[in-house]
């Protein structure tokens, strides 16, 4: 989380809002966690519907933990709201998302062998994870103490209080789409299954969970995949396919600028006439998540899909851009600028990066230009850090400007 000075919290005591936030994150989390724990009348059984929400951890690999998330006492369709990235976007505030996640108990099964995903399949746990409706479940534990912490991660959605359990029982029938059921039984490579589900309109986040739970691939090779890895793997697999198609299309005709924002993250996307290439810039404001000073990071990707280093946020945003170019049957050069302000005081995973970039390209074109430098200057003037940064001097953008053909800097009349 964003680091707020302890002395400020002592002076504030949760009600003066001296940090500038609309409510106290410490008190909000305390109330939500307390509410979740208070709903467990029998400390040995946690009952409710998983939204669905399952995480495969990576610690201890190849013996990993499975986290089965249940909001105690919440059953049926109302449980869906506890993990619904697409439904949250633009509707739920950061506080509301954290509150929802705080109210779910992570039931932890430990030391699961990644090479035996069939154990979870036989108990219908993995099927519950890819159900398109919430699934009534319970978890049984002989532990008396629930660990009352909200855990954060930059890649996946936060999880609430946790307890180690002996067993997880799925109480009703998971609901799977016919296409999903077919591919679970088919003996095809995982990448082929991912692409087939994607092209048939399956929910993106359900595909990620399916890969994580070992439901795809050649049957003799199937294994559990830690959720952190499966998110990037799906972004890469689908991005690879989209890029192979996009590179065959004609270039766009003019320079376009798009914009959208959510959860204190502000995105500008510049598309310009060129063979595919991409630049990713992140601007971290003081007292945003990981820093007390203004930090700028960047990376670039060339026509062949080779990038400086793997960044989960970039892969999520890149996917959204490639989707739009594929839909338009055009290719372009790409500059994505993500500005992270102090409003984003707790990480909620990279889903919001993917979804906000999608919304920018769907709804909010804010300008067209004949000159790339002018487009970059226009975006610079809209930044919260306008007076502290020159985008033209950022390493990857500067390199792009010196390598791009000269006609992009000349007005076309």
From TrEMBL:
The keyword Lyase does not apply. The keyword Metal-binding does not apply. It holds the Pfam family Nre_N. Residues 18-291 form the Archaeal Nre N-terminal domain. Residues 307-409 form the Archaeal Nre C-terminal domain. Belongs to the Nre family. This is DNA repair protein. It comes from Stygiolobus azoricus.
């Amino acid at each position: 989380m964003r680091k707020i000075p302890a002395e400020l919290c002592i002076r504030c005591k949760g009600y003066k809002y001296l940090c500038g936030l609309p409510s106290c994150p410490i008190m909000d989390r305390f109330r939500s966690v307390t509410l979740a724990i208070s709903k467990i009348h029998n400390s040995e059984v946690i009952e409710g519907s998983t939204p669905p929400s399952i995480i495969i951890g990576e610690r201890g690999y190849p013996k990993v933990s499975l986290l089965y998330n249940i909001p105690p006492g919440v059953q049926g369709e109302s449980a869906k709201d506890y993990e619904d990235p697409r439904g949250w976007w633009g509707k739920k505030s950061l506080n509301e998302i954290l509150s929802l996640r705080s109210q779910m108990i992570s039931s932890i099964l430990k030391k699961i062998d990644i090479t035996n995903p069939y154990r979870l399949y036989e108990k219908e746990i993995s099927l519950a994870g890819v159900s398109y409706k919430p699934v009534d479940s319970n978890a049984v534990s002989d532990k008396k103490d629930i660990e009352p912490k909200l855990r954060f991660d930059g890649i996946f959605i936060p999880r609430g209080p946790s307890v180690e359990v002996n067993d997880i029982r799925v109480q009703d029938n998971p609901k799977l789409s016919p296409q999903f059921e077919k591919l679970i039984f088919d003996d095809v490579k995982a990448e082929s299954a991912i692409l087939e589900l994607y092209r048939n309109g399956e929910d993106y986040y359900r595909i990620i969970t399916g890969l994580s739970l070992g439901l795809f691939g050649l049957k003799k090779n199937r294994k559990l995949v830690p959720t952190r890895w499966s998110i990037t793997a799906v972004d890469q697999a689908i991005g690879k396919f989209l890029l192979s198609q996009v590179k065959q299309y004609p270039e766009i005709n003019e320079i376009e600028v798009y914009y959208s924002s959510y959860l204190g993250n502000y995105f500008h996307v510049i598309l310009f006439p060129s063979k595919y290439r991409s630049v990713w810039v992140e601007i971290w404001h003081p007292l945003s998540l990981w820093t007390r000073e203004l930090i700028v990071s960047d990376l670039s990707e060339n026509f062949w899909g080779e990038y400086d280093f793997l960044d989960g946020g970039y892969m999520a945003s890149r996917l959204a851009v490639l989707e739009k170019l594929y839909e338009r049957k055009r290719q372009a050069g790409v500059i994505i600028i993500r500005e992270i302000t102090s409003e984003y005081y707790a990480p909620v995973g990279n889903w919001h990066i993917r979804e906000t970039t999608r919304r920018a390209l769907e709804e909010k074109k804010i300008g067209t230009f004949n000159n790339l430098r002018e487009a970059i200057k226009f975006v610079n003037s809209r930044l919260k850090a306008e007076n502290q940064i020159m985008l033209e001097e950022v390493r990857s953008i500067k390199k792009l400007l010196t390598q791009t053909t000269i006609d992009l800097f000349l007005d076309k009349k």
